[in-house]
């Protein structure tokens, strides 16, 4: 389910050919607009535009929907809660905004190679070198977040399956404690892997 | 040459210090070194000393004369490390991006980097999987990709910590064939005694000590006797 998240899909679309810098700027402006203009009419329009952009980026929407099953379930729960607490208009605005942000994020990762992203972020944060920070490290951390998302979701899925196998799927402790431990272990392992490739210096 | 001079590894715990490796002195010059021993005996600690992932509490570790503590960066450029669990080692979403990451230090030009990454993937037999999600790879393909990520940095020595333990027979043989076909020196931790027999020299590690060091057949016999003697 998580395998498509954060994965670059090579292609020749305009989005693929656009540099990560302009796309990052668009992502920031898009996020601000989605939050600032949210409403029962504007937010679904953002979703419609996001669907067009995602399709334009070469994402196969049917496969993407399969990838997003967990997210769609979560959005359904949020919609139900918001409808109950604050009414249908707010529920539509909140759920549509989240969906619009997620779809554009998916389009961004699908059309941006990690290597290009690293180069761009490294350039953007280069001035921080003067205050003692290492741009290449910041860029690497940024790129690793993309990889971490599906990995953490995978850990969550495995932890839930392990708890279910022992009949403990209703115990928050049986889910949360091993999940946190495994995520921290994954972070250590990633650190070791980077160090082993000489990327920690 | 790999040299350990009275190198030991000790970690702190709430119950006091725990010795993961007692002071060990070794000089390894052979092309293929095998390391065998029970789980938790100290094999992984020993090989992690070799590329500076673990630093000695006492003594020193030298790789071709370079100290892993003082010259860790240079040591890690020379020593590639393949982990047991490939998922730990693959840090980018697709094989091409993962190998490209390894090349960021050595190849400045972006398109050259990507071209070289494709070459490395082709050499390891993963050319047709370059752009798929790493999650979509089989266990054997993931381990080969981890090896590709290491080989891309052109190390002079490859350390592999139980690289075939999690693989089925076919994939284990595939990964072993690649490892034994390397021109680089190889240090291989393994539970596969057939692989150990193919090395030039084998160390047996037990209870945080190197308890045997010698010819492969004699080392394997020693390890089997050790396993049979342990209740």
Q: How would you describe the overall organization of this protein?
A:
The complex is a heterodimer of chains A (201) and B (231). Chain A is globular. Chain A contains 9 helices and no strands. With 201 residues, chain A is mainly alpha-helical. Chain A has helices at residues 14-17, 20-36, 42-56, 61-67, 69-86, 88-111, 114-124, 135-165, 172-196. The mean pLDDT of chain A is 84. Chain A has 2 domains: 1-112, no CATH class; 114-201, no CATH class. Chain B is of the alpha/beta class and 231 residues long. Chain B has a single domain (32-50, 72-229), classed as P-loop containing nucleotide triphosphate hydrolases (Rossmann fold, 3-Layer(aba) Sandwich). Chain B has helices at 43-50, 72-78, 86-89, 95-102, 110-124, 139-151, 169-180, 193-197, 216-229; strands at 2-11, 18-28, 32-36, 58-63, 66-67, 79-82, 157-161, 185-189, 201-206, 209-214. A 6-stranded mixed β-sheet of chain B has the order 6-7-8-3-9-10, sandwiched between helices. Chain B has a 4-stranded antiparallel β-sheet with strand order 2-1-4-5, with helices on one face. In chain B, strand 9 (201-206) and strand 10 (209-214) form a beta hairpin. The longest helix of chain B has 15 residues, at 110-124. The termini of chain B are far apart. The A-B interface holds A 2-4, 6-10, 109, 113-116, 118-119, 136, 143-144, 146-147, 150-151, 154, 186, 189-190, 192-199, 201 and B 51-53, 72-73, 76-77, 80-81, 83, 85, 87-94, 97, 100-102, 104-105, 110, 113-114, 131, 133, 135-136, 149-150, 153.
């Amino acid at each position: 389910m998580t395998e498509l998240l954060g994965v670059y899909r090579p292609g020749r679309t305009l989005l693929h050919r656009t540099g990560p810098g302009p796309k990052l700027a668009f992502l920031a402006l898009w996020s601000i607009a989605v939050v600032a203009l949210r409403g029962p009419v504007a937010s679904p329009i953002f979703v419609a535009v996001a669907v067009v952009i995602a399709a334009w980026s070469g994402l196969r929407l049917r496969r993407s929907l399969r990838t997003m099953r967990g997210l769609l379930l979560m959005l359904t729960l949020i919609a139900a809660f918001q409808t109950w607490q604050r009414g249908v208009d707010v529920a539509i605005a909140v759920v549509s905004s989240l969906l619009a942000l997620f779809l554009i994020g998916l389009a961004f990762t699908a059309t941006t190679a990690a290597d290009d992203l690293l180069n761009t972020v490294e350039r953007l944060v280069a001035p921080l070198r003067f205050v003692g920070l290492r741009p290449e490290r910041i860029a690497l951390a940024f790129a690793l977040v993309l990889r971490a998302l599906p990995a953490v979701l995978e850990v969550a899925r495995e932890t839930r399956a392990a708890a279910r196998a022992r009949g403990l799927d209703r115990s928050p402790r049986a889910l949360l404690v091993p999940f946190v431990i495994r995520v921290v272990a994954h972070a250590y392992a990633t650190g070791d892997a980077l160090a082993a490739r000489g990327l920690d210096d | 040459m790999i040299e350990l001079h009275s190198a030991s590894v000790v970690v702190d715990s709430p119950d006091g210090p725990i010795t993961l490796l007692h002071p060990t002195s070794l000089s390894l010059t052979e092309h293929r070194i095998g390391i065998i021993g029970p789980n938790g005996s100290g094999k992984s600690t020993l090989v992690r000393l070799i590329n500076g992932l673990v630093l000695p509490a006492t003594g020193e570790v030298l790789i071709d004369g370079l100290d892993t503590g003082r010259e860790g960066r240079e040591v890690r450029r020379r020593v590639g490390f393949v982990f047991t669990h490939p998922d730990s080692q693959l840090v980018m979403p697709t094989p091409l991006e993962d190998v490209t990451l390894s090349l960021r230090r050595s190849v400045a030009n972006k398109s050259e980097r990507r071209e070289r990454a494709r070459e490395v993937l082709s050499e390891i037999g993963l050319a047709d999987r370059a752009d798929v999600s790493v999650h979509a790879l089989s266990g054997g393909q993931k381990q080969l990709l981890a090896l590709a990520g290491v080989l891309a940095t052109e190390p002079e020595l490859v350390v592999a910590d139980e690289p075939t333990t999690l693989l089925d027979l076919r994939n284990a043989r595939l990964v072993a064939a690649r490892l034994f076909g390397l021109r680089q020196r190889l240090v291989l931790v393994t539970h596969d005694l057939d692989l150990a027999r193919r090395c030039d020299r084998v160390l047996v590690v037990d209870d945080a000590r190197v308890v045997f060091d010698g010819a492969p057949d004699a080392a394997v016999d020693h390890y089997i006797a050790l396993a049979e003697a342990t209740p």
